[in-house]
TrEMBL record:
Taxonomic superkingdom: Bacteria
Residue ranges annotated for the N-acetyltransferase domain, each copy included: 2-157
Keyword set, alphabetical order: Acyltransferase, Transferase
Stretches that traverse the bilayer: none
Species of provenance: Halobacillus andaensis
Protein name as it appears in the record: N-acetyltransferase domain-containing protein
Record's keyword annotation contains Acyltransferase: yes
Amino acid sequence: MAIVRKPVEKDLMHVTKYAVDYTWTKLNKDDTQSAKRLKNKKDWAADHLFNENPNCRLLVAEENGNVVGYGFGEASQDNEDTIGKIEEVFVDEFYRREGIGSELVQSLLKWLRDRQVDRIEIGHSSEDTMTQGFINSIGFSPDGIFSPDGKIDKKNR
C-alpha cells in the first residue's frame, strides 16, 4: 500500500518527471507547440509543489521511500456552485494496476469533500480504453461527473 502525502522539496524531481510524462501522453505529437507545452509543464510542477493556494492540492504517492506518482485537484467557484476537479493523476508505469491511482483519487476526493464542493469532475476524459476503465471504476460517469455523496450528479449532465 502506498503512502499518499503532500509533497516536500525533495520530491520536485519526481513530480516534474511525472508531470512531463503525463503531458507527453496527452500531446498530439504533430503539434508544433509540443516542446513549449512540455517546458511549461516543468514550470507547472515547481509552481504547484510549493503552492500554498488553499483551493489547489498536489499529492504524491510513495512506495518503499520512492515517489511513484502524483495527483492534482482544485476547487473553484462556478456561479453559486463550488466545483471540485481532479485534474491529473499519474502513476509510474511500473507501479500501475496496484491501486496507487485509486489511492491518489480517494485522497483527492476526501480533500474535495472536506471543502464541501457541490460537484466533482474529472479533468480530462480519455479515448484510451484503459484510462476510461479506470475513470469509470473510481465512480465517474463517462462524461466525467461525480458527486460528493458518491452518487452520479444527474442535474449537471
